[in-house]
């Protein structure tokens, strides 16, 4: 159907409050409207509410223009970066171009990032279909506790080859994730886990952090997305350490030179890189570019 996710959610669960991302997108649309009406001060006020709701305090430039250590620990650095750009446009507009166009573009980028934009599928069909390329994508499908029980059974019996599980924007809460965790951490090849856009709190973050202390659980996990939830804004250091330990055990990781897109020194006695060396050590196309190259 053509119904928006928020409207469909009310049809499925009329007695429950909308997920946090619905509120945040509403604020972004209000910012767009206030800028059109040249109510810049009101737009800055709404931006302050949005940043606080995402756990990113402060809206003035001297409070948000800090891309140092804390930036690297954020669960959603993309939103942080876009919100900084929006703060610049609202508080320090440049005279040589129309600030409305720039601010509206940033708002549209944020709305796209903070909402589900994958195709809607039937849950039953998605679980019955053969897993393609080792991934399970249920993004955008509102799940109930009954669905989670079915998913746990599916993971237990068919999850050995899964490398990616996408449960973003599925209305998951802490209790649902608590039920799923033992089945997720048992997946031997899981490297990517997406839990963004749900109803998760710091309780889930704590459970996940404690789980990662055991190297036998999530043995290959390299990346987890917990952004755009209720009150989860930063990654605890023990969780980052757990991910780093698992990454260090992967033989296909790029070297530090490759990760920084720089040329490593060629050992003596070797002339040029062999094709098989380049294929084995090349940086994955989806790897996140390192910020160190910009400095």
From TrEMBL:
This is Leucine rich repeat containing 75B. Transmembrane segments: none annotated. Residues 262-295 are annotated as: Disordered. PANTHER family: LEUCINE-RICH REPEAT-CONTAINING PROTEIN 75A-LIKE ISOFORM X1, LEUCINE-RICH REPEAT-CONTAINING PROTEIN 75B. Gene3D superfamilies: Ribonuclease Inhibitor (3.80.10.10). Signal peptide: none annotated. InterPro entries: LRR_dom_sf (IPR032675).
